[in-house]
Design goal:
elongated; DNA-binding; Multidrug-efflux Transporter Regulator, Chain: A, Domain 2; nine-stranded antiparallel beta sheet; alpha+beta
Length: 283
């Protein structure tokens, strides 16, 4: 290949909109390899048709695509790359919407005060027998898991047939968001003195939950959708800590009224956190 068919790295840098330092970095990572390297000077040269590739790399990096992912995307055809970019765009739009909602919720809490945004009360939760379907996951997989889990739970209850003893609820054993996974339990309470389930499918179990005190707040409509609902969890957790109680189990998200559409104004959820007085005598 003749050198006059190639662009030296300085000219290529200008045409591609990438710094010489970045080009050297992409060369070292195997993302954009020069067409020719002078063995004497070590000077890099690129083919003219590599300019478009370099411009694509620049655009992907501006979208915060990691270098390793850039290398994979460059190996795709145009149709596959377009599909991958649309998927990433949808994820970015969702993330932006979540950040906007989180910021508005925090501004409301700062201006109104947490106690004005969510009123926390304490009630006594009765002992319950529940059907349980569990999985370890983060927020991205939560909706799909809950949809499938409750279909299975209601189908199992119908074969009993079991008598429902309260609204369905979810137990979170830790932080469940875009950065963290935790054990999540979909729970369906049923009357323990009535018909009992038999021949449960794999993955569904029966569990008895003890009577416990619960620190609670309700959220409705848009406030019940992720990520705004995280502010309500924060308020309840802060109230428990400030009032000297101990956290006595996984937090519950109780579906008092649920339409099936996450942002419906008719949705009414209750956050209920088991608590105990650390100074109270135990059995």
């Amino acid at each position: 290949m003749e050198k006059h068919d190639l662009l030296p790295i300085g000219q290529f840098s200008q045409a591609a909109g990438l710094s010489i330092t970045a080009l050297r970095h992409y060369d070292a990572g195997g993302v954009l390899v020069p067409a020719f390297v002078d063995p004497m000077s070590g000077y890099r040269y690129f083919r003219r048709d590599q300019v478009r590739t370099a411009q694509t790399i620049r655009a992907l990096r501006r979208l915060d695509v990691p270098v390793e992912e850039v290398r994979r995307l460059l190996d795709l055809g145009a149709a596959e790359l377009s599909a991958a970019l649309r998927t990433r765009l949808h994820a970015a739009e969702r993330r932006l919407a979540e950040q906007r909602a989180t910021a508005h919720d925090l501004l409301d809490r700062l201006s109104e005060g947490a106690e004005m945004t969510h009123r926390v009360t304490v009630r006594q939760g009765a002992a319950e027998r529940v059907l349980v379907r569990a999985a370890t996951l983060g927020n991205s997989g939560l909706d799909a898991f809950l949809r499938d889990a409750y279909q299975e739970l209601y189908a199992a209850a119908g074969r009993g047939p079991l008598t429902f003893a309260g609204p369905a609820f979810i137990r979170f054993h830790g932080v469940c968001d875009d950065e963290n996974e935790t054990l999540v339990e979909a729970c369906l309470p049923f009357w323990k003195d009535g018909a009992q389930p038999a021949g449960l499918p794999e993955g569904i179990t029966v569990r008895d939950l003890p009577e416990t005190a619960l620190a609670c707040t309700e959220v409705q409509g848009a406030a019940a959708a992720f990520p705004r609902i995280l502010g309500a969890y924060d308020v309840v957790a802060g109230w428990i800590a400030e009032h000297g109680f101990a956290f006595a189990g996984p937090v519950r998200l109780i579906h008092r009224r649920w339409t099936g559409t996450p942002d419906s104004p008719e949705n009414l959820l209750e956050i209920a956190w088991p608590i105990e007085d650390p100074g109270a005598p135990r059995d």
